[in-house]
Predict the structure of Homoserine dehydrogenase.
Amino acid sequence: MAAVKVAILGFGTVGQGIYHIINEKREQFKETLGVDIEIAKILVRDVTKPRSNAPQDLITDNFEDILAIPDLQVVFEAIVGEEPAFKYSALAIENGCNVITANKVMFSKHGLALQEKAKQYGVQVGYEATTAGGVPVIKTMQNILRVNDVHHIQGILNGTSNYILTQMRSEGLAFDDVLKDAQSLGYAEADPYNDISGQDAFRKLMILSALAFGKQPRWEDVDVIGITEITSEQVDKASAKGLRYRHVADVQLGENGELIAKVGPELVGPEHPLYSIEGVNNAVALDTNYIGTLTLVGPGAGMFPTASVMVEDYADMLAKQTAPVTI
Amino acid sequence: MAAVKVAILGFGTVGQGIYHIINEKREQFKETLGVDIEIAKILVRDVTKPRSNAPQDLITDNFEDILAIPDLQVVFEAIVGEEPAFKYSALAIENGCNVITANKVMFSKHGLALQEKAKQYGVQVGYEATTAGGVPVIKTMQNILRVNDVHHIQGILNGTSNYILTQMRSEGLAFDDVLKDAQSLGYAEADPYNDISGQDAFRKLMILSALAFGKQPRWEDVDVIGITEITSEQVDKASAKGLRYRHVADVQLGENGELIAKVGPELVGPEHPLYSIEGVNNAVALDTNYIGTLTLVGPGAGMFPTASVMVEDYADMLAKQTAPVTI
C-alpha cells in the first residue's frame, strides 16, 4: 500500500469539502485507488481562528511548511483570487508536486503557463473544479478533443445568475427581490458583483477556450454583460413568446481561425440546448465535428460537487499511472 | 513514431465510420496520439459484395486472417448481434489484443466476463459506443465512480422511441404515422421491434448497471415495456397537464443493496431532467452522492458519433500508457 501525502491550500468551503471526502473515503480509496491518502498540512490565512473540523497540528499559515512535507505528491489549491494562489501553484510544480486547482480567477489567467511548467517538471495539473463545479466538462472535453474538434462552446457557467433569471420568470419577481432571496439562501454572495456582472462566467469561458482552442481571445475584445439590467417586464414579454432569458457564455472559432467570444443575456427558444437549464444548475453545450452537440448539466457550485471533482482529478492522475502497459 | 495495426470487425455504418475517421485523422493522430494507425484488415460476412470505400485487399471473411496480423493492437468490434461478436472478442483478448466494441447485445450479456478476461490477459476493453452513441456516459461514469457513488440512473437510451414520442406530441400525429416517417428518414429500422419494444434500451441499461453497481438485476425480473401502446389521446391529455411521455430506462440501488430496474414510458414534468430531451437525442441522468444529479445529452446513434467515441476509447488507452509517471 503506497502512502501518499497531500496538502490543502485554503480551508473555506471547497478546502473543507476535500478534507471531508478524503477522510470519509480513505479506507475505500485504499482498495479502489490503491493508495493511503494522508492530508499532511492545511494552509490557512489565520491560524488563530478556532476550527472544529480539522486537527490544529495540520494547520499552518506558512507555505514553506507545505513545501517541506517530504514526498508531497499533490497540492489541492482552493484559495480564492489570483495571488498567492498562482505563486504557490508554480512553486509546488517546481518542487515536483502535482497541482489540482478550483481557482478560476487564477487559472483563467495563468492556466496555459502552469500547464507548460507542469510539462517541463513532469507533473500534472488538474482543473476540473475551476469550471462548472461538479459538471465534468474539462475531462469530457479533454477526452473528446483527442478525436473530435470542438468549434463552438455555449455555457451557463454561473449558477447565481441562472437562479435569478429562473426565479424572475417562474415567480414573476423583480431582480432585486430575487437577489435578496438568493443571498439569504446562500446562492449568492454578500457581494454579488462577480456573479451578476458576468465576470465569473467570463473567467470560466476563458478556461474552456484555452482547452478547446489552445488559446483565448484578447480579454478586452470580449463583451461581458451581466443580468442586472433585465427587467420583469422583459422577462414576461419573453415568456409570452415562449422564450427564456439565459445568461450565456459563448466562444466559437471564426472562419479565419479567430476566436469570437461574448458573455451576456440571450433569449432562447425551446430548441436551444440551454433553454431547459433551471435554477442553480450549470450547463455546457459543445458543438463538435463528429459527435454533434453534446450537453452536460449539473450543479455548478457547492462544497461537495466541487471538492469531489478535485479528488477525481487526483484519482485520474493515479489511474493514468497504474494503467495496463500492454497497449 | 510507433506504427500500430488495428482491425475492424463488421463494415456496416459504424465500421465504415471508424475506417473514415482513422484515415481522415491519420496525420493528426501522428502528432496528437503519437502513433501511426494502420487499418490492417476488415472482417465482413460477404467478401463478394462490391465496396467502393475500402481497398479490396483489406477485406476478409476469415477471422483467422485477423488473428494472424502481426502485433495487432486493437480490434474495433462493430458486428451486430451476440455471435460471432462474443467469440471473436474473446479470441482477440486471448491473443493479447485490446477490444473496442459498439455491440450492446453482446456486451450487455458478456461484458463483465470480457472485462475479467481482459484483466487476466493484461489488455483493455472499451465500450463507450455500446450505450447512448456519442454521449460519453461510460467514461464519465468510470471517472466519477472513482470518488462518487452512483445510486440511480435514468436514461433515454433509444433515439427512435424518443423521436416518435416527440413527434406524436409536437405534431399531433398517431404512432403508426410517425413510425413510417421515422423509417423513411432513417431514424427507425425496417424492423423496428428492438427499438419500440424497449429491448434496445433494456440492453443499454444492463450495461450501465454493470458499470455503476458491478452487477445487473436478473433480466427476467425487469419489466420492459415499449411505446407501442401509447395513443395520441394519451399524449394530448398529458400535454394539457404540462407533462410529456418519455421512454425511460431506470435502475437504482434499493435499501438492501438489491437492484430495482424497469424500462417503459413515464409521464414527466418540467422539473424532470429528461423532460426537455427531444427528437433522436439520448440522455442519461446520474444521481450521485457528492455531485448530485449530472445529466449528459447528445446524439444516441449515427455513423460518426458512434465511430468517434470508439476511436476515443483507443486514444484513451494510449493516453493511459503515455501518461507521466511522476505520480
In short: Confidence is low (pLDDT under 50) at residues 323-327 of chain B. Chain B has two domains: 2-133+304-322, 138-300. The first strand of chain B starts at residue 2 and ends at 9. The two ends of chain B are 25 Å apart (CA to CA).
